[in-house]
């Protein structure tokens, strides 16, 4: 029986008193590739932010390795949803990836050769090493997304939480990212990934959480990825696009 890396119990979150997710109970297995799937506005990013301690729930609790999120964040690499990040600050690609190392060193320590080598390794995994000195404001959307993934790889966390990392990514890069995720899983890492394309859930993930304001189904792909569950989640056409 694999242990749970995340346990969420009876979590409800509201914005300005409007509840957007309610009574969420879920578990994410260690060493899994778990997808979070559901229509626009289903509360996927809200759930991820609660796990990352970025919002204040109305009620309920989140535990990461049995600890409160704020005590467990060091071991998590987080890739926010595209559009939630301001890319206008003057920084090079290499510096953005090096930020992935600060959690290990603290903000005031100098980066050394080993840190730069780790950052270059991560950039090369994402096939972005040729852009290392480029300003991030001067990259395409997909290239920025790859830099962000390189930063997460450079972080060398045990657990990766990614909010639609494949959004706006070309198919070659998509395969590259999925292969990288599978290789990291083989080394013992765990993944919780918001995913939009229903056609690739089975191919890319081994567990799934189907969400639409509450949890509709969760478990292994075999257990939970069923037509009736998907229909139930996407049935409310007012929240789909
Ligand atoms: N900061 C906020 N203030 C007020 N309402 C918000 C805020 N963030 C999200 N919402 C609302 O909460 C609901 C859930 O939003 P959330 O971003 O979690 O959905 P999502 O499932 O990630 O959607 P998408 O697929 O579009 O990314 C939506 O109705 C959204 O309008
Ligand atoms: Mg979202």
H-E string:
EEEHEEHHHEHEHEEHH
Number of helices: 8
The CATH fourth-level homologous superfamily: P-loop containing nucleotide triphosphate hydrolases
CATH topology: Rossmann fold
Low-confidence stretches: none
InterPro entries: AAA+_ATPase, ABC_transporter-like_ATP-bd, ABC_transporter-like_CS, Metal_Ion_Import_ABC, P-loop_NTPase
Family: Belongs to the ABC transporter superfamily.
Pfam families: ABC_tran (PF00005)
Protein name: Manganese/zinc/iron transport system ATP-binding protein
List keywords for this structure.
binds adenosine-5'-triphosphate, about 240 residues, 9 strands, globular, alpha/beta, six-stranded mixed beta sheet, Rossmann fold, binds magnesium ion, 8 helices
Describe the structure.
- The chain has 241 residues and is an alpha/beta fold.
- It has a single domain (4-239), classed as P-loop containing nucleotide triphosphate hydrolases (Rossmann fold), CATH 3.40.50.
- It has eight helices and nine strands.
- The strands form two sheets. A six-stranded mixed β-sheet has the order 5-6-7-3-8-9, with helices on both faces. A three-stranded antiparallel β-sheet has the order 2-1-4, covered by helices on one side.
- Strand 1 (4-15) and strand 2 form a beta hairpin.
- It is globular, with a radius of gyration of 18 Å.
- It binds adenosine-5'-triphosphate and magnesium ion.
- Keywords: ATP-binding, Nucleotide-binding, Transport.
- This is Manganese/zinc/iron transport system ATP-binding protein.
- Residues 6-237 form the ABC transporter domain.
- It comes from Lacicoccus alkaliphilus DSM 16010.
């Amino acid at each position: 029986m694999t242990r749970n890396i995340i346990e969420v119990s009876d979590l409800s979150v509201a914005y300005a008193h409007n509840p957007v997710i309610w009574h969420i109970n879920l578990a994410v297995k260690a060493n899994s590739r778990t997808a979070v799937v559901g229509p626009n506005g289903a509360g996927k990013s809200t759930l991820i932010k609660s796990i990352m301690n970025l919002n204040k729930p109305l009620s309920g609790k989140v535990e990461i390795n049995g600890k409160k999120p704020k005590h467990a964040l060091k071991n998590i690499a987080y890739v926010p949803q595209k559009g939630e990040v301001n890319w206008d600050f003057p920084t090079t690609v290499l510096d953005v990836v090096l930020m992935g190392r600060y959690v290990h060193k603290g903000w005031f320590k100098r980066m050394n050769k080993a840190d730069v080598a780790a950052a270059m390794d991560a950039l090369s995994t994402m096939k972005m090493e040729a852009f290392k000195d480029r300003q991030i404001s001067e990259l395409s959307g997909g290239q920025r997304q790859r830099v962000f993934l390189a930063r997460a790889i450079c972080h060398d966390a045990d657990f990766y939480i990614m909010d639609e990392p494949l959004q706006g990514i070309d198919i070659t890069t998509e395969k590259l990212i999925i292969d990288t995720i599978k290789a990291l899983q083989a080394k013992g890492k765990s993944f919780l990934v918001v995913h939009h394309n229903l056609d690739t859930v089975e191919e890319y993930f081994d567990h799934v959480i189907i969400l639409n304001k509450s949890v509709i189904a969760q478990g292994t792909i075999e257990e939970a990825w069923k037509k009736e569950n998907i229909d139930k989640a996407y049935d409310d056409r007012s929240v789909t696009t």
